[in-house]
Structures are given as C-alpha cells and as structure tokens.
Amino acid sequence: MSVPAAPPRAPQGQPRKAALAAWIGSALEYYDFFIYGSAAALVFPKVFFDESDPANATLLSLATFGVAYAARPVGAFFLGHVGDRLGRRRIMVFTLVLMGLSTFLIGCLPSRDQVGSLAPVLLVLCRVLQGISAAGEQASAGSMTLEHAPAHRRAYFTSFTLSGTQAGQLLATLVFLPIAALPEDQLLSWGWRIPFWLSVVVAVVGYVIRRTLHETPEFSRQSAASEGVARLPLVVLLRDHWADVLRVIGGALVASVSTIFTVWALSYATSDAVGMDRSAMLWVGALANVVALGAIPLWARLADRIGRRPVFLTGAAGSALLMFGYLWAISTGSYPLTFVFGILAFGVVYSAANAVWPAFYGEMFPTRVRLSGMAIGTQIGFAVAGFAVTFAAQIAGPDGADWFAVALFTAALCVPPVIAGITARETRKVPTELLGERRTEAAGAEDVRPVGV
Known about the structure:
1% strand; 20 helices; MFS_trans_sf
C-alpha cells in the first residue's frame, strides 16, 4: 500500500479552536441531556405522569430518559453518512441547533393537568429530537478534533469533547440546585422550566464558534484524493471494519456507569427507601464532575504516553468495582461515604475511560468512514446504556431498594468494554493519515467517488 500524500496544512490555531468548538458544543449537548435526567428523576413523574401511582410514574419518567438513547442509533446512521460525505463541520453546526431548539421546547411544554395524555407524547417527541442531535455530536466533534490534532497529542485534544460533556453535566447540576430548593408548588409549576430555557444562551455562543471552524486537513485530503470520499460510507464500514464497529459498541456500554450514577442513583437516594436530601445528592454529582474536569485531561495525557488500551481498561474495570461501593454508601444514608465513593467512582476512575474513548474509537477507522464508525458504534452502545436506567428501576424490586442487584447489573455491562479494550489494537504511534488503513486495499472502486458528484 502506498503512503498517502501529506494532508493540507490547517490554519494556525485550528487544533485549539477545534478543541474549543468540541468542548462548548458537548457542554451544551450534555447540559441539555442531563437537565432532562435530573428532571426525569425529580420532577417529571409529577408534571407529566399520573401522580396516583408514584412508582409507575417514576418508571415511565425514567423510560422517557431512555427514549433519546433509542433514537440515537437512527440518527447515527443518517448523520454519520452525511458527515463522511460532506464534512464534520456541517454536522457539528446541525447538532448544536437541533439540541438547543428541542431543549427550549421542552421548557415550553404544557403539563398533564393542562392537556392530559398529550403532554407525555410531546415530551417524548422532544426527547427523540434530543437523541438524534446527540447521535452526531460526540462523533463529529471527536472526528474534527482528532483530525486537527498533532499526531502525538491526539488523546489530549480529543479529550476536550468529554471534558465538555462533564462540564455540561456540572452546569446542569449547578443550575438545578437552586431550582430543586424551590417550594414544591413553584418547582412543579414554573421552576423546572428555567434550566431548559437557559440552553439558548450556550447554543448561540457555540453556533458562532462552530460556524467559523475550518474543515479538517484529513477530510480535505480525502475529498481531493483520486478515490474521493465514500459514496456509501455504511457499506464500506460494515464490509471492511465490522469488527471494530463491534468493539466500539461493546466499549460504549461503559456509559451505563454514567446513566446509573446520574439518574438511577439520584432517584434511589431521594426515594422513601433511603430518604437522602435531593440538594445534597445533586452536590455529589457536581463535585464528581468538578474532579472529572481535572482528571480527564490528565488521563488523556497519560494515554498519549503509554497508550489508549491500559487507560481505557482501568476506567472500565475500576468503574465496575466502585459502583458497588457507591450504591452501598447511598444505602447506608451516610453523606460522607456517598461523597467519597461518588467522587472516586465517577470523578476519578470513570474519567479514565471517558478521557480516552474519543481517540481510542476514532483511531480504529480511516478518515472516509471515521464519523460513521464512531457514531453508529457509540450510539448503539449508548442506547443500551440509556435504557439501563429503566432496567435498573425494575431490577431494584417493587420498593426500589435492591442496590446490590443494580450494582451487579452495572458491573455486567462493564464486561464488554473490558473485552473490547483487550482485543483492540494499540494506535498511539500510528500516523493520523494511516489510521484504520489496513484494509483499504480491499476497497472497490465502486464504493467511492469525488465530492459533489
């Protein structure tokens, strides 16, 4: 196989600008995504569902959290195709606008008391739009940042995508703290809407930054090459890179740790079975995310020195073990224990997997199918992670108190990520233009054509 021509030079400062664009977009996406999670656990059962059956209302509310994850694989097929055909920047702008709009609309929805069963239907529709947006966000931001980054610092620069995710979660928690402290009648009538409306501010800032971002050198090189971009990226992906797609699906199941921590554990801790204060539990998430903001770039720097696999495996296996400690701490009702285990599990150890996966997954694929491979693989895995909350609510039993069964379930979902990490290739030293190219000689001429044809 001949060595590809050197990619075009990016304008100076583009790696940092790409990292900033990834950070702020992911912050918005996951601010929106996780204010929904907090609201689904604390507010929506009473606003959109039948209060006469609190247990069922909570179960249905948590199920709507998972609906977005079900929509994400569908969005990934479409957005991955477009991103590999037309470029990363267009998808990054589209996902930002769609997420901002759908989140704002959730804040405008009427309650069940006002419009009856139409209220949860409208809620689910907006949640589906959030899911479609999120399907393309991390894959496009990760691809954009990876392809702009210096080869020896790809893990560090791509980690800004996940730093943005954690910042969004932190922002969502901090915004919800004063809202959760409102009197019950104010919280349920208008208070819960404010966090959803505030997303417009971040959306405007992110839109301005992303509109001025240049396309990546690698995508530009691929577009200008004689073979052009893939006409049907999905065909090339599933024919030549199916094993890596399966690895990404398995690896992405580690996100179950995040959804169980953020949604189910919050619901469990504030339930009648435990009775912990909801503001205190929101502070657990806030402090864990503060620690994660510092831990993610440090883990990423380590991955640039020793490799992606050992760091990812540390995060996946360690999270499986520490989930037992965290849920046990909640079961005791001890605030100090809950804070310590929450920060250690989510802020430190889970951050290892979070920091490295954008580079780890993205480096499995060549430029022409990278966005499709990342989007489809992660979103199928994330779909399972999203519904893990609903399954956990059922596994926990009728009183919602069987924390050990939920911890065991979460640990089981961390096994496929460990297998994915063990079987994957180490790509730390592979030049960016050669990533994923081991199978390109098998690609047929019928699969590609120049851009615009």
